Amino acid sequence: MTDRSPSSPLDPDRLDRVLAPFAADGAGLSVSVEDLDGATIAGPPLSRTTARDARADGRVTRDIGSHGATVALLVASGPASRDPAVAAALDALAIGLGELADASTRIPPSELALGRLHQRSIVSLRAPDVPGYDLASHYEAAREIGGDFFELFRLRRRRRTIGVVIADVTGKGIAAGLMMAFARPVIHAALDAAPGPAVALERTNRILVEELHTRLFITALVGSLDAGTGRLRVANAGHEPPLLVPGNGRPIVNVTCGGLLLGAFTSLGLAEIEVELEPGDLLLLYTDGVTDAADETGERFGEPRLYATLDATRGRSAHEVVAGIRDAVAAFRGAVEPTDDVTIVAVGRHRR
User: Fold this and answer.
1) Predicted model pTM
2) Domains (ranges, CATH) in the chain?
């Protein structure tokens, strides 16, 4: 039976639910929480150890802080714990658990907004300045910590190529947020090193399936944009298809290239599709929090309203298009609280 510490401000049952997505069979990745005396609070039972001993035997630890003091240790073990990509997930996990400790000591609920600020430093990354293009985004979590994520970044090995990522973790709240914190740097690194988006998603999926054995899954759309030619290669793992808004006034194009979501199957069998952004064109990526937004009657915002909003903002900058969709969703929803995270990303190519 696991030796659970009774002295920690962290609730063991709640911790078990938070750690469940990180549970692994075998020696892939195992994550537990210990009190400062080495007793297991939550997660799989581990031998008693101090933080110094944990470092000595190769395990990775993170301090869990509450009110400026360390109240527990996050301990990761197994081969995957030594992967640099896991470090970001462990950092985010420790921050989130610290917020749970604060909440359990009756800190006002508004203090959990600190967790959102920490996450936004991970999620809402500043897009690179790409001559000839507008890159814009909007992110709104349905809860204090959400499970959507996106990124626009230069690929290190191909300097004029821009990586485009948007994804949605199944579920909501802190568990989805922690999964996001793990998956984001994995997808980033995979796209930077892989020959194309489909291979990057296959490599990410292999890590999720073989190392984490998670019960959470991810829909993801990944692309690589050649800024010189406007050529965009896209692979889609179960995500909403992107929408191409032609600058010449032609109808909006649904860029269909669907596939299996990440973390569910050992192989995705994804195909890539190629889209060329002509001068004046705009590509929109979004999560289902946009189209599934509901008003007080339960009616969805839906695809027709999204298309109508895109038509109404046609020809404007990416920032104006994103703001137009954000405002249209908010106006439609009214006083109804969001039930899902809302993420909108737009890539627009300037007219010559």
Assistant:
1) 0.67
2) 12-107 (3.30.450), 123-349 (3.60.40.10)
